[in-house]
Design a protein that fits this description.
Three copies of one chain form a homotrimer. Helix content of chain A is about 40%, strand content about 15%. The first copy, chain A, has a five-stranded parallel beta sheet. In chain A, helix 2 (about 45-60) crosses helix 12 and helix 5 (about 130-140) packs across helix 12 (about 275-290). Chain A has helices spanning about 10-25, 45-60, 80-90, 105-110, 130-140, 160-170, 200-205, 215-220, 225-235, 240, 265, 275-290, and strands at about 5, 35-40, 60-65, 95-100, 115-120, 150-155, 175-180, 195, 210, 250. With about 290 residues, chain A is α/β, with parallel strands linked by helices. Chain A is globular and about 55 Å long. Chain A folds into two domains: about 5-125 and about 280-290, Aspartate/ornithine carbamoyltransferase (Rossmann fold, 3-Layer(aba) Sandwich); about 130-275, Rossmann fold. Chains A and B meet through helix 2 and helix 12 of A and helix 3 of B.
């Protein structure tokens, strides 16, 4: 694996090799000693940025957080020149978040053969490390990922998290991905998905429920009356969770809008694996980096 | 010692153990290798932030400076979710500065048994590492801390530095803490303190004089005519310093308003230990971290 | 070498010793283990800041990027107090960029005998590490630096890059430094320089052409009609480059204004060593740091 740009670029074998790597990491380790990793976040983020920063530092890498606000791109330097300059400085791996879809596909063309690139989220397209940490978390709870009902609920249309997760589940052989969303927020490429007609259909006998963050600005834009209405129709509440299997796990990529897409007591409850996802995020990102530099 | 939130939580023995740790630290050391420390500064600060950053790095820790301005708390994430998310990422110790009193008391409840918490200043309540570095500095100059006259001068009422220092001196057995301030800026809990009626009483035969930074906005608010008036009545000048013992040391937590609470020539003079305080700050914070993870 | 403030402070022997150091560095190395380096950039910069950050980290130093926007200097602390406070915290080397000429000359006076200082660019005065990386790059392409024609083209008057490079070439014994610029942007101290009357004179038979970044605000200020006009008269185009020697190398300190001072195809072409300069920047800064702490 040279880059990690689109989860669809990975085979089932590669994903399993990354998970094996994750489960065998020891700390402090030095797999990336002498390597330099640059975090280029063109969109604000603390959560994912810190997760990557910790992952790289735990592996012994030198980490540079590029301050985009003060960078030469603000002086009119092209993205290409920024990337190639950093690469010339000896950056061995770029971790890039960008609001534009497919930015990494473009960046990839400018890289030397040895330089690595990890997509940390591009527009509403892909967020492959999130998909890896999500499926890694599922696998810690469910023995056979192929034969379980996984329901993804919320703004699927604009969600790179959902996109990458669906792709990753397809690669891993799951054929029971259910989605439920306000009509305007349903996925545009619904193949291989079971579109649910109501929350009940999505929740019933589910093994895994993935709630997505709803961006408040979407609600107004898509004619959803208000947050309460969203919570009532598309939020996960205790009543609705009872429809799922008794050992159903509840996931959320964070940050959580408590009381909007999910009731607080569920986010903090026994079935929630939200903090496990966060924990696995660092681990899986370490594994991806270690695997790339093997 | 699990956390360091309020200096009053420490016994005399613990304080002495930390000072022993400080005096035996060697550099580069690796007591915190493989540990991750997050600096969460909700108030601007460079001085204390860098002091903690250096202390943690010198011990071999991975240090994350959380950019609060760009963090998820700005997206409406609760402080609890921010803390628990970082903790799930593997942060082993939090260093927190916050404008609200007792923030660390709240944060403490959300932490796992092994996670450490250091209060780097909360409102006008506590700044325990400052008290430790101050008393550590005094002990380098005065053999017996119990029998010396220590005068704290300035805005004691709003000063977490003064609060923690007074508590720490009490724990260490000093019974001669004098304070002098504009009436409106006297401490609200004056027990165990000797309130001086004028600068002369505070300075006379003092072994240690601690000048506090006056925030310029307080001056207007508390009907002090102007900075010159403040300097004249409450600033340390050469004349006033002559009233103290000949080996009296002059302290200030910094940053110094030269010509306001202290004359420049004293700040830079032989009796000033201001830069020693800064130096000991890194050392004592290293000692606190090393001691916590022992 | 205690500090690196002005390239003119270095002898030819010292420069050669730094270059030898650069060519023998191995990675990961630990020459600066246990040392702390503070980057104090009072002017925005990513390129030079990251280059120094990487150089220091690759040597095993603890690196502190001081956030000037949030620092105590904003609270009215003097520059002297900021420097002395950081020094007391154990900073072993300062890397300073400032918009005022000779800031480092002033800072130098406040430092302890063991503390190092590197000028990372001051006003339009000096940028000594840029001169070192530029001449290091030239030496990788030209056997004898004394006997080659080097032409520097653009806003020489306001360029610390040009200033330091000219000084460094003088030290290394080159006597064929040609400059070409709009009349208002010619150097104010033209001794030892050959002022060209047109681009043709500068480019003809040149071994090295150094194009300088033109700041767009200068163009209006100095009555140059527009960017196209500047490009036509002072920009490097394929036609003009043909006048130079066939093995002439093209340099630029970056960031490049493509289509203004240089045609894109030249910046990316075979004769361009722009990315080599960037690469050598990290290496030479490592060498300077390692050499200082020897």
């Amino acid at each position: 694996m040279k880059h990690l740009i689109d989860i669809k670029d990975l085979s089932q074998e590669t994903i399993k090799a990354i998970f094996l790597q994750a489960s065998t990491l020891i700390s402090p380790s030095k797999e990336l000693a002498g390597k330099s990793v640059a975090n280029l976040f063109f969109e604000n983020s603390t959560r994912t940025l810190i997760s990557f920063e910790l992952a790289a530092k735990k592996l012994g890498a030198d980490v540079i957080n590029v301050n985009i606000d003060k960078s030469s791109t603000k002086k009119g330097e092209t993205l290409r020149d920024t990337i190639q300059t950093l690469q010339a400085m000896g950056i061995d791996a770029f971790v890039v978040r960008h609001s534009d879809n497919k930015t990494c596909q473009t960046i990839k063309k400018w890289l030397n053969p040895k330089t690595k690139l990890i997509n940390a989220g591009d527009g509403n397209n892909q967020h492959p490390t999130q998909a890896l940490l999500d499926t890694y978390t599922i696998l810690q709870h469910k023995q056979d990922i192929t034969n379980i009902k996984i329901s993804i609920i919320g703004d699927i249309k604009h969600s790179r998290v959902a996109n990458s997760l669906i792709d990753c589940l397809n690669i891993l052989g799951n054929n029971s991905i259910h989605v439920y969303a306000p009509e305007q927020l349903l996925p545009t490429r619904p193949n291989k998905l079971i579109i649910c007609k109501d929350f009940q259909q999505a929740a019933s006998d589910a093994d895994v429920i993935v709630m997505l963050r709803i961006q408040k600005e979407r609600i107004a834009k898509h004619a959803i009356p208000d947050l309460d209405n969203y919570h009532h129709n598309f939020g996960l509440t205790n009543d609705k969770l009872k429809l799922a299997k008794i050992d159903c796990i509840v996931m959320h990529p964070g940050p959580v809008n408590r009381g909007v897409e999910i009731t607080s007591s569920i986010a903090d409850g026994n079935q929630s694996v939200i903090l496990e996802q966060v924990k696995n995020g660092v681990l899986v990102r370490q594994a991806v980096l270690a695997y790339m530099f093997k």
